[in-house]
Amino acid sequence: MSDTVGSIPEPARPRRPHGASAAELAAVLGAPAPSTDLTLQGVTLDSRAVEPGDLWCALPGANAHGADFAAQAAARGAVMVLTDPQGRGRCEAAGLAVLEVADPRAATAVAAAVVQGRPSRRLATIGVTGTNGKTSITTAITRTLLALDVPAGSIGTSGTSYRGADGRDHAIATVRTTPEAPELHGLLARMAEDAVETVSMEVSSHALVLHRADEVVFDVACFTNLTQDHLDFHGTMEEYFAAKQQLFTPAHARHGVVCVDDEWGRRLAREAQIPVTTYTTREDVAADHRARDLRAEGYGTTFVVDGPGGSRTLHAALPGRHYVANTLAAELLLAAVGRSGEDVVRALGEAGTVPGRMEPVADAPVRGIVDYSHTPDALRQALLTLRAVPGTRRLLVVMGAGGDRDRTKRPLMGRTAAQLADVVIVTDDNPRGEDPAAIRREVLSGIEEGTTAQVHEVDGRGEAIALAAYLADVADTILVAGKGAETGQTIGGIVHPFDDRLRLRDALRDAHPARGGADDMDEGR
């Protein structure tokens, strides 16, 4: 699928609503039946996005209650509201019929599924969870299926895109890794309406805790790994794991595919409440499928997999052991929904790079790479991978940490960078509402005294990338980490246009005018 599908974002709801009666929905939710029956055409959480005939969901929040916006929802054409006892009075005062439930967030997912006609049942569904690898796996699956002329789509960090049975590509703007339940079921209904056969979806830990993915029972769910991230939300790694573990229950999936490279995966394989298939890239770990004999081939890796049916050879389009794991996961997930054979293996090996994931933007005389690695483990994997690429001289990394997110990982990011790179340039990621200088100090605090790495602190991401290009010499590699394919940088609540890939490409062109760009690379790189 083209990375520029759909120049105009499309709505996250079907063109022809399935609809449901208020009485039917009340019965499903166990709520008191409304005094007058209504037909509900759609579901939304956002009072600004209400369309005539919608069920509007007014949920309690940390700072306000959704019911505070009841008048706006009514003015836009909402015919009924789903809320809790605390919101009922304000919604009735706005003239809205009310469905009252004790837990409106959980009920929202049920309502969205019912009103949209439970669209996930009309699709083959693949859910992928884990700290790292979700986007790479879901994108590889979708691109493989499209190469085989199978209508398919994906939902995740990079937004939502799909190709229908008529061959048309669609792009739908989504903000969260896993959209809120009304948006999610609207997207699935849209895909089912366009005869999509398979959808692969990133399932975040936030989504599982906050009921966003409820009412979707995936045909197969995948666990990639668990490393430190999102502790600002979960508190502890144990709670983070417990959130991911919910996906491997009958309420959420029928079968599991679990990477057992780390102890969290091995524990999940033991404790999952559904049948699981395991895979590994390690020689010392037992698994149903094991990757071995990894061989660099071009910019990717060819490897052998030993499984119950014998041995087979696969190719990962990107370098590194973690992309070997991602490729094997994608193959197993495709097989779980009935897609296997030589054509699938060939298409998977040619699926290409994922935007912002170990994406090469320059090759010579300096190699430039942009990657989304924004956790200590992901950064470690990226740096180790690039260090192992034949012909690499020095490794320079431009990195930082996001604001208003898990602060405990910041010093770990700095320490990892200084341990594995020759030159570390600490700069700003997405500071959001925090002081950028304070974030940089926390990252720098993790760098050990006596490090052999050359360390720089640079105020301004563009300036940091320019410095890396200036410092780099022939056969050096620059990694710009943290933001991947994002096209904006959030500073003080304002999103400024910023694309690491364009900035790095331009900086290298200015610093090394005779260099070869990404367009000059050998075909297949």
TrEMBL record:
Post-translation changes: Carboxylation is probably crucial for Mg(2+) binding and, consequently, for the gamma-phosphate positioning of ATP.
Enzyme superclass (EC): ligase
Domain Mur ligase N-terminal catalytic: 40-113
Function according to Swiss-Prot or TrEMBL: Catalyzes the addition of meso-diaminopimelic acid to the nucleotide precursor UDP-N-acetylmuramoyl-L-alanyl-D-glutamate (UMAG) in the biosynthesis of bacterial cell-wall peptidoglycan.
Modification N6-carboxylysine, positions: K244
EC number: 6.3.2.13
Gene: murE
UniProt record similarity statement: Belongs to the MurCDEF family. MurE subfamily.
Cofactors, names only: Mg(2+)
Residue stretches making up the Mur ligase C-terminal domain: 356-484
Domain Mur ligase central, chain residue ranges per copy: 128-331
Descriptive protein name: UDP-N-acetylmuramoyl-L-alanyl-D-glutamate--2,6-diaminopimelate ligase
Chain residues that bind meso-2,6-diaminopimelate: R405, D429, N430, P431, R432, G482, E486
Keywords: ATP-binding, Cell cycle, Cell division, Cell shape, Cell wall biogenesis/degradation, Cytoplasm, Ligase, Magnesium, Nucleotide-binding, Peptidoglycan synthesis
Motif (Meso-diaminopimelate recognition motif): 429-432
Primary location recorded for the protein, binned into one broad class: cytoplasm
GO terms for cellular component: cytoplasm
Compartments reported by the entry: Cytoplasm
Single GO term (MF): ATP binding
